[in-house]
Amino acid sequence: MKAHDRLSAAIVAANDAGQTALLPFITAGYPEPRDFIATLKRIAAVSDVVELGIPFSDPMADGMTIQRSSYIALQKGVSLKWIFDQLDSAHGEIDAPLVMMSYLNPLLAFGYEELAERALATGVCGFVVPDLPFEESDEIRAAFGAKGLGLIQLVTPATPDERLKILCAASRGFVYAVTITGITGGSTGLPVDLSDYLDKIASFSKIPVCAGFGIRVAADVAAVGKHAAGAIVGSALVEVLERGDDPAPFLEGLKGS
Length: 257
What we know:
This protein is 45% helix and 14% strand. The chain is α/β, with parallel strands linked by helices. It has a single domain (3-252), classed as Aldolase class I (TIM Barrel, Alpha-Beta Barrel).
C-alpha cells in the first residue's frame, strides 16, 4: 500500500465503523518540545489521522492561535529536521498515519528528495502546502509520487467548479475542503450552505473529502460528517494544549461519545 493510500484507508475505516474520521492538527513541538512525542502518541491513539504543523515565521493561512503556537515553537528551536529526528525516535510507536502541514519555504530549504525519503521513513504519508499553487507543484509532486506520498490539495468555497475538478483529481490521500473564505481559528461557526459545498466536492472526488477550519465542537463534527468523510480540528485543539489540558478527552468528546 502506498503511503497516501494509508490516509484514505484510515478515513474510510472510520466511516465504515459509523464514525466521521477525526483528523486533529497540532503544531509540532508546542507547547513544549520535550513533550512532543508523548503528546503525539496520546492524540494518535484516539484519532484516525494526525496533521503536524511545521512551525513557520509567516503562517498566512492561520489565525492567531496557530500563529502564536508556531512562533513559540520556533523560539524553542523546533525545526523540520528536529521533527523528523523526534519521529525517528518513536518509530513504530505512533498509531495513526501522519500528515505534515507546511508552508513551502521549509520544504524547499530541506530539499524535496531528502524530504520525501525522511517522510516515508518516519510515517508521514502526505503533505498540505497552503501557499503552493497547483500550477507550480510539479517538482514536489514528482518527488512525493516517487515515494508514494500524497500532496493533499486544498479547495475553498471560492474555487470554481472546473478548477475544483482538477484539484480533486490531483489530490492524494484526501481532499482538504476549507469550510470558509478566511483563516483558521474562526469562532463564527460553520456556514449555513456547507452541505451543498461539501456534497459538490464529494461528487467530484474519488478519494475521501475532509473539512477543516472553524470546527470546534462535537456538533460541528456531526454536521460535517453528514456530507464529508472527515473533520479536521486545529485551533480548538491547540488551545487545549495551550491550557495544559489532556487532549484525549477533548478529542473523544468531539466524536460524541
